[in-house]
Each structure stands twice: as structure tokens, then as C-alpha cells.
């Protein structure tokens, strides 16, 4: 769990938008994770997150998922949406919960534990705003990858969870090949720089320790 070097903005859960077409946004922290033959580039933004999915060996960008407070630049966060993309099928689901003070604090603590249990995750909290965090927890899945994200808003007790799955369309040769190793690559930074019943710990294997880059303005 990183402390992001940026003041917490008093945004609202209702302002979260979703897109598969926005360009890469400036990130505060970045981690690249190799899972099931794909590379996920996880980016924490000042306004939430992006996940870039790359084909094997980083040869082609499959899609860029953006969930962030960018009104006017992206559509509303869907409860469920499925779309066929080049290379596979993409599904995203979202849920917003409103919790009272103690329940909200317990939920945030469970999210922190889930982050600690998943060495492929990337999560950040904000200075001066206890309980405000953004977390992305990826894992390998049958024929692809999936990840859960959390976005917490302590000012009104709202907790937004998204679940994304990408199921690859495999060639006959790929179907007969075992998945590549799970691992974490050193991250890079470009630009300037969530019991809640849905919280669970993800087993992402035991990849080597990684250095997470954190941009400091």
C-alpha cells in the first residue's frame, strides 16, 4: 500500500466513469505484472486507475481500461458490460455500497489485507485522508486474467468495487501450451505525474519481489 504523493481530492463515487478508448493518463504509480501469458500494466491515477492489457511479450496493446473521475471524457460506470475485443472477450461489473463509519473502516482494513496477500497488486492511499484508497488486485483466470478494484470515499462511506475479466481467444497451438510463468517486472512511470462481502484475498502465485515506481512531483 503506497502513500500517494498528491492531496486527496473530494470527489464522489458517482463521478467515476469508464472507458476502453481513452489514452494513457499520467500516473502516480505503475506496476507491470505478467499473468497467463499477458502483461498487465496497472496505473494508479490521481483520479483512480487504468489497466493496460498487452499480448504476449508486450507485442500488442489489447485494450486500456480506465475507471476514473473524468466527467465529459468517458461514459458512466456500468453495472455490467460485455464486449468482444480483438483477442478475446471483456466483461466489467461494478457495485457501490454505502457503509456507516465502523463498517466502512472494517471494509477498508479487509481491502488492505487482501492487497498484502496479493503480491501482484498495486494500491495507494492518500495523505490526510484516512480510509481513502484505490486498489487493483489481479490474478490469472482460465484462458485469461481478471482483476478486482476498490475505490473508497470516506467522506460519505461509499465503496466502489469493479470486477473485470478478459477471456482470451486462443489458437489451437495456444490451447495446447501451458501458461507462462507469473511474475512481476520492474515498473516504469510516464507523464506527470476498494465484511464487504466482495473482499477476498487473491492467490497470484509467488512472483519475485518488485520495485514499484512512485512519481513525486
If you had to describe this structure to a student in words, what would you say it looks like?
- This protein has helices at residues 101-117, 172-175; strands at residues 2-3, 17-19, 29-35, 38-45, 48-54, 61-68, 75-76, 80-85, 88-98, 122-125, 133-141, 144-153, 158-168, 183-185, 213-214.
- The radius of gyration is 16 Å and the shape is globular.
- The protein has 217 residues and is mainly beta.
- Strand 8 (80-85) and strand 9 (88-98) form a beta hairpin.
- The chain is built from two helices and 15 strands.
- Strands 2, 3, 4, 5, 6, 7, 14 and 15 form an eight-stranded antiparallel beta sheet that branches. A seven-stranded mixed beta sheet has the order 1-10-11-12-13-9-8, covered by helices on one side.
- 10% of the residues lie in helices and 43% in strands.
- It has one domain (2-214).
- The relative contact order is 0.25.
State the end-to-end CA separation.
Answer: 19 Å
Helix content: under 10%
What class do helices, strands and sheet pairing give?
Answer: mainly beta
What proportion of the residues form beta strands (DSSP E)?
35-45%
Mean pLDDT: 79
Number of strands: 15
Low-confidence stretches: 174-217
Q: Give the SSE string.
A: EEEEEEEEEHEEEEHEE
**Using only CA atoms, what is the Rg?**
16 Å
Amino acid at each position: 500500500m503506497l502513500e500517494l504523493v498528491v492531496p486527496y481530492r473530494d470527489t464522489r463515487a458517482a463521478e467515476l466513469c469508464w472507458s476502453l478508448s481513452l489514452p494513457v493518463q499520467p500516473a502516480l504509480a505503475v506496476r507491470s505484472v505478467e499473468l497467463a501469458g499477458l502483461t498487465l500494466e496497472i496505473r494508479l491515477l490521481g483520479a483512480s486507475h487504468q489497466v493496460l492489457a498487452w499480448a504476449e511479450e508486450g507485442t500488442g496493446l489489447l485494450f486500456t481500461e480506465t475507471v476514473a473521475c473524468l466527467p465529459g471524457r468517458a461514459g458512466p460506470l456500468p453495472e455490467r458490460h460485455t464486449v468482444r475485443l480483438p483477442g478475446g472477450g471483456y466483461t466489467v461489473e461494478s457495485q457501490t455500497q454505502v457503509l456507516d463509519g465502523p463498517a466502512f473502516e472494517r471494509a477498508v482494513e479487509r481491502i488492505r489485507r487482501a492487497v498484502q496477500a496479493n503480491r501482484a497488486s498495486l494500491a495507494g492511499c492518500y495523505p490526510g485522508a484516512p480510509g481513502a484508497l484505490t486498489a487493483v488486485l489481479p490474478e490469472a483466470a482460465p484462458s485469461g486474467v481478471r482483476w478486482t478494484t476498490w475505490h473508497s470515499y470516506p467522506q460519505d462511506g461509499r465503496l466502489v468495487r469493479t470486477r473485470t475479466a478478459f477471456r482470451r481467444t486462443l489458437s489451437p497451438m495456444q490451447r495446447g501450451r501451458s501458461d507462462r510463468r507469473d511474475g512481476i517486472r520492474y515498473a516504469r512511470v510516464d507523464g506527470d505525474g476498494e465484511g464487504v462481502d466482495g473482499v477476498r484475498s487473491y492467490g497470484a502465485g509467488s512472483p519475485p519481489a518488485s520495485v514499484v515506481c512512485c512519481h513525486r512531483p
